[in-house]
Amino acid sequence: MTGTRNTVHAWLLVLPACVLLAAFTHIPIITTFIHSFYSTPKPRRPSRFVGFDNYEAMLADPIFWKSLWNNLLYAGVSVPVSIALALAMALFVNSKLRGQGALRLAYFTPTVLPMIAVANIWLFFYNPQYGLIDQLLKPFGVVGVNWLGSQGTALWCLIVVGIWKEAGFFMIFYLAALQQISTELRECAAIEGASRWTFFWRVSFPLLMPTTLFVMINAVINAFRLVDHIFVMTGGGPDNATSVLLYQIYVVGFKFFDQAYAATLTIVLLLILGVIAIGQFLLADKRVHYQ
Which CATH number is 169's domain given? Predict the structure, then answer.
């Protein structure tokens, strides 16, 4: 009787979390998946089952492939650079130096800024007439470059903004992990004559792999849910050069009001994130060393 009572009590404790998870995650995913097989309802034409027509239209849509490529390029560059920069900053601020607290705050400050504010700050930096970057490059003869208006530079400019915004956030996790490494390991390595690089590569970095796996998954998710500063800075242009999947879902669903096609794009985005997350776990788990 006591065991049954404990089981019921445990389920009652987790019930609110289960309800919220189902209401805001599982049920919307299932509903979106179902809607992807129906047409968008019109005032005089109700929604009807169309099978895989929405998916066929998606495969034939050049904007979808452009947005997917932009998203993969954004993630492929910003994720490793953000993680490497975060680790380097964590190693630097973890050492004994003057103004350590102020330096940590400076690295972390971009993280707490709203993305809309960040986008407007960088709009000033990229302005081709009076922007900060233009003023810095003027002595070198580079004047009036339309960074956000050129197809060759617009996406790379957004990648720089994303790295600047994310690196400080990931640094906090690495800093916390570094402070959990026992000082005895460093002392033993020093006695054995190991250099700082050897200690980092052979001891610190393997012990940081759980944190790296966590940071990597979050970095990929953040790269694929990119939309707010695209909305402010480029609007997906020029000529869809900065359009990504989530922004394309917004355009299709809220500008063209094609909810069925937006649901199709959403399911594809969820599948991509799921495959990448599973792949990260399968590949990185072999190198993760849990203390």
Answer: 1.10.3720.10
